């Protein structure tokens, strides 16, 4: 009983950490620009696929992983420069379609150049499972959780203790005011796309040894990251992390105890439930329209 | 909205009347039918997105309910196709009405999330209930018959769909230029202003959402009967996005834009088929380029350029 | 009997007490002005009375019937109309359509009849279009009868809002700074327009910074300061009130 519960919990928080990284990516871009970046999932896919490509090409693991984070970051910046900046202030639905277009381009390019096969990556520290109270934990899960924890701490430090971070935060509260005090808000936009692509890619790399990857895994991972971000209250960083873990755990529990066939439906059923009863997500602020 | 808006309707009728006589072969007749079906769905969706200013990223789900009602009920339970179609529309309408109230208390990105979630749940259900739906492989749909007369040839289908499209364009034009339509456009233009003149905004959003969902469901049924086969792809997220893209590329809040958007995006995959393997890249790139350079969509941009109202 | 009775009305946003225990009453047929420094809570008061915000506490009665917390469309049904300090024009519609929307509640709003373009709908719409054009002339927008809203200058849009509110055939109209941002000539025109509206029998409640206009038009004046009622009375009484003088000359600051 307990072993089974623990097992579901382990796999839930592992996947949940990936969702959390994706949700943080959504949050960063949303705060900088009010754009929901539907290409976020593709960064996850890109991270995993590129890590596979570079390791197979014979690069040492650390170099391969670094490159697999940097390339998506550059792609993120390109999207921002070429597709988001030129249409600042467009309607929500226009922006949604632009980012979906970007996601199709990324997915299509990966499909053309890397093929449709499913790939795996060797676990970073072997495959010997760790036994805890009858449940097993893969060492790779510790990598996922560890890196996610480090990322959260670094981000917290960045936003609360560095000038650049504070500038990004200020922009998210009030873009015009931020510009008036001399913050380069385009720079902020640039930074947030780079960072959120890198976060997504990291998640994709870390989870690949556990869940495998292929050119089309990005959509679902991205959409679940979006669920996590909304669950935590769009724009709230801590909420995104909690939302990600919660989505992962509930998905694993639902798949284990209710129906594994409906595993992918669980996050969406959850978000509908939350939105209907708590329209601002778990940690979203109440807003009064000014007229 | 002037009388001029209706001149476009005559052009639509003329084109639809001439088309079957100039199309070289059945491949093009088939393409024309699918364009017309999409155009009808997009007309409904544009009322919601373009005119009322509300997003739906889950409309393919409603399409799927209609399509599968028309597939499952006659196949498994021997229902009359017309009854099955109506049952699908009714179920869609009921589901849309049930979720609409909480959904339309949400705005912008939250609304996008909720509709997206709804569509995905419908899609996953269709994929999983294989004993009824054939699962990911899909299932055949019996022919559509009414009073002993079976719709089988493409020409017959063409005239049926052309008639439906004509009526839909006419009804959309009527609706927009009516007290109901003005209230819809007003709540998009300024929600608070429309509220203080007495528009019950949630009620209008719900009404137009249910209407466009029922439109989608009916056309889902028609698609299923016409193609003779349904797969879950009809109801997937990507198809929802395709439909929204038709609205936006043709032009939000433009009736004729809906038609142009549907025609272009239905033809696009055919045109891109020559780019073997590169279809997805090309499709994505075209979406981006259109939205970056024509954010208002084709018809409104061109209309503004040539100084004509829509 | 008073048309509008407000007692002990308050609203708090978190810790901010935007309106605090304000009471006043408005007799039918008069021009009643609400003045006060920026941030005094004038627009918030309008938002409360017209149902855009729900009060934290207090009572609002229209003809003796409680309307506190009712939605804007319910208030519209009871003949309450308003304009906005920050323009709320539907830029996706033509000017005359904006005015026609004001008549929303007087029309047959049936979806199916509309989709079928039944003669009853089109006939009524044609009448309404004529009526809306007439209202646009009344507010001095003769030259914009065929215009799109997004092609009109600011001053004209201000008056378009008034025409839309009048299309409701309201009993009371709340005008939130109708002259803000207008040049002196336009301000005088709006002054005359408000007088014409009042003369047509509609009760006018006015928020305005232009003191000349306020003194010129108002039967009674309410002064708000920091969300509280500072004074109330005729123009002459307000002009002589030491608290008001102190507030306006910045004794508080």
TrEMBL record, chain A:
It is a multi-pass membrane protein. InterPro entries: ABC_transp_permease, BCAA_transport_permease. Keywords: Amino-acid transport, Cell membrane, Membrane, Transmembrane, Transmembrane helix, Transport. Its main location: membrane. Belongs to the binding-protein-dependent transport system permease family. LivHM subfamily. PANTHER family: ABC TRANSPORTER PERMEASE PROTEIN (PTHR11795:SF450), BRANCHED-CHAIN AMINO ACID TRANSPORT SYSTEM PERMEASE PROTEIN LIVH (PTHR11795). This is Branched-chain amino acid ABC transporter permease.
From TrEMBL, chain B:
Its main location: membrane. One of its GO terms (molecular function) is branched-chain amino acid transmembrane transporter activity. InterPro entries: ABC_transp_permease (IPR001851), LivM-like (IPR043428). It is found in: Cell membrane. It is a multi-pass membrane protein. Keywords: Cell membrane, Membrane, Transmembrane, Transmembrane helix. Pfam families: BPD_transp_2. One of its GO terms (cellular component) is plasma membrane. This is ABC transporter permease. The chain crosses the membrane at residues 6-23, 35-57, 77-98, 110-126, 156-176, 206-227, 247-268, 280-299.
UniProtKB/TrEMBL annotation, chain C:
Keywords: ATP-binding, Cell membrane, Membrane, Nucleotide-binding, Transport. Pfam families: ABC_tran, BCA_ABC_TP_C. One of its GO terms (biological process) is D-alanine transmembrane transport. One of its GO terms (cellular component) is plasma membrane. It comes from the Bacteria. Residues 1-251 form the ABC transporter domain. One of its GO terms (molecular function) is L-isoleucine transmembrane transporter activity. The keyword Membrane applies. This is ABC transporter ATP-binding protein. The lineage of its organism: Bacteria, Pseudomonadati, Pseudomonadota, Betaproteobacteria, Rhodocyclales.
């Amino acid at each position: 009983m307990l072993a089974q519960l623990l097992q579901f919990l382990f796999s839930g928080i592992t996947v949940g950490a990936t969702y959390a990284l994706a949700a943080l990516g959504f949050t960063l871009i949303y705060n900088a620009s009010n754009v929901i970046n539907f290409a976020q999932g593709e960064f996850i896919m890109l991270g995993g696929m590129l890590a596979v490509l570079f390791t197979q090409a014979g690069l040492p693991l650390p170099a391969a992983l670094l490159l697999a984070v940097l390339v998506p970051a550059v792609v993120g910046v390109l999207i921002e420069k070429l597709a988001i900046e030129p249409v600042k202030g467009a309607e929500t639905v226009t922006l949604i379609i632009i980012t979906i277009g970007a996601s199709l381009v990324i997915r299509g390019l990966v499909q053309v150049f890397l093929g449709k096969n499913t790939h795996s990556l060797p676990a970073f520290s072997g495959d010997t499972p760790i036994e805890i109270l009858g449940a097993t934990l893969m060492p790779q899960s510790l990598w996922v959780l560890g890196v996610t924890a480090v990322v959260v701490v670094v981000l917290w430090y960045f936003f609360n203790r560095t000038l650049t971070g504070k500038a990004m935060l200020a922009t998210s509260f009030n873009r015009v005011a931020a510009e008036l005090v001399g913050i380069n808000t385009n720079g902020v936009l640039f930074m947030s796309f780079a960072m959120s692509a890198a976060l997504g890619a990291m998640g994709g790399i870390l989870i690949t040894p556990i869940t495998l990857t292929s050119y089309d895994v990005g959509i679902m991972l991205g959409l679940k990251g979006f669920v996590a971000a909304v669950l935590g209250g769009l724009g709230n960083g801590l909420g995104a992390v909690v939302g990600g873990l919660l989505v992962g755990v509930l998905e694993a529990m639902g798949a284990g105890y209710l129906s594994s066939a409906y595993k992918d439906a669980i996050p969406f059923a959850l978000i509908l439930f939350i939105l209907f009863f708590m329209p601002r997500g778990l940690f979203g602020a109440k807003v009064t329209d000014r007229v | 909205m002037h009388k001029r808006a209706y001149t476009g309707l005559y052009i639509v009728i003329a084109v639809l009347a001439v088309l079957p006589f100039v199309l070289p072969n059945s491949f093009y007749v088939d393409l024309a039918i699918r364009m017309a079906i999409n155009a009808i769905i997009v007309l409904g969706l544009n009322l919601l997105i373009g005119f009322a200013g509300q997003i739906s990223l889950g409309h393919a789900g409603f399409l799927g309910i209609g399509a599968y009602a028309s597939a499952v009920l006659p196949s498994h339970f021997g229902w009359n196709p017309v009854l099955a179609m109506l049952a699908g529309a009714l179920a869609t309408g009921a589901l849309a009405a049930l979720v609409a109230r909480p959904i339309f208390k949400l705005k912008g990105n939250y609304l996008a999330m909720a509709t997206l979630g709804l569509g995905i749940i419908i899609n996953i259900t269709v994929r999983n209930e294989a004993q009824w739906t054939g699962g990911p492989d899909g299932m055949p749909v019996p022919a559509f018959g009414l009073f002993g007369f079976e719709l089988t040839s493409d020409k017959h289908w063409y005239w049926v769909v052309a008639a439906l499209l004509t009526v839909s364009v006419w009804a959309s034009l009527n609706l927009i230029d009516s007290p109901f339509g003005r209230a819809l456009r007003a709540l998009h233009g300024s929600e608070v202003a429309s509220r203080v003149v007495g528009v019950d905004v949630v009620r209008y959003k719900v009404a137009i959402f249910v209407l466009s969902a029922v439109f989608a469901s009916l056309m889902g049924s028609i698609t299923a009967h016409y193609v003779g086969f349904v797969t879950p792809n009809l109801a997937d997220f990507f198809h929802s996005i395709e439909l929204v893209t038709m609205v936006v590329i043709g032009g939000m809040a433009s009736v004729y834009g809906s038609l142009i958007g549907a025609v272009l995006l239905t033809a696009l995959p055919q045109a891109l088929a020559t780019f073997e393997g590169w279809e997805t890249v090309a499709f994505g790139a075209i979406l981006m380029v259109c939205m970056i350079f024509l954010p208002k969509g084709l018809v409104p941009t061109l209309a503004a350029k040539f100084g004509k109202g829509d | 009997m008073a048309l509008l009775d407000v007692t002990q009305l308050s609203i708090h946003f978190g810790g901010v007490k935007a309106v605090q225990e304000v009471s006043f009453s408005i007799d039918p047929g008069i021009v009643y002005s609400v003045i006060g420094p920026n941030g005094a809570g004038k627009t918030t008061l309008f938002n409360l009375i017209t149902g855009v915000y729900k009060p934290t506490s207090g009572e609002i009665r229209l003809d003796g019937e409680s309307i506190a917390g009712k939605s804007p469309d319910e208030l519209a049904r009871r003949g309450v109309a308003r304009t906005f300090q920050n323009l709320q024009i539907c830029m996706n519609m033509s000017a005359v359509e904006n005015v026609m929307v004001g008549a929303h509640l007087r029309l047959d709003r049936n979806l199916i009849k509309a989709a079928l373009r039944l003669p009853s709908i089109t006939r009524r719409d044609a009448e309404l279009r004529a009526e809306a054009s007439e209202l646009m002339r009344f507010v001095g927008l003769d030259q914009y009868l065929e215009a799109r809203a997004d092609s009109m200058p600011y001053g004209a849009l201000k008056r378009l809002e008034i025409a839309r509110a009048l299309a409701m055939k309201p009993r009371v109209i709340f005008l939130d700074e109708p002259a803000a941002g207008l040049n002196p000539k336009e301000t005088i025109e709006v002054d005359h327009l408000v007088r014409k509206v009042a003369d047509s029998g509609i009760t006018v409640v006015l928020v305005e910074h232009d003191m000349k206009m306020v003194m010129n038009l108002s039967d009674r004046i309410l002064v708000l300061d920091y969300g509280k009622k500072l004074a109330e009375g005729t123009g002459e009484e307000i002009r002589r009130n030491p608290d008001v003088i102190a507030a306006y000359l910045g004794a508080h600051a």
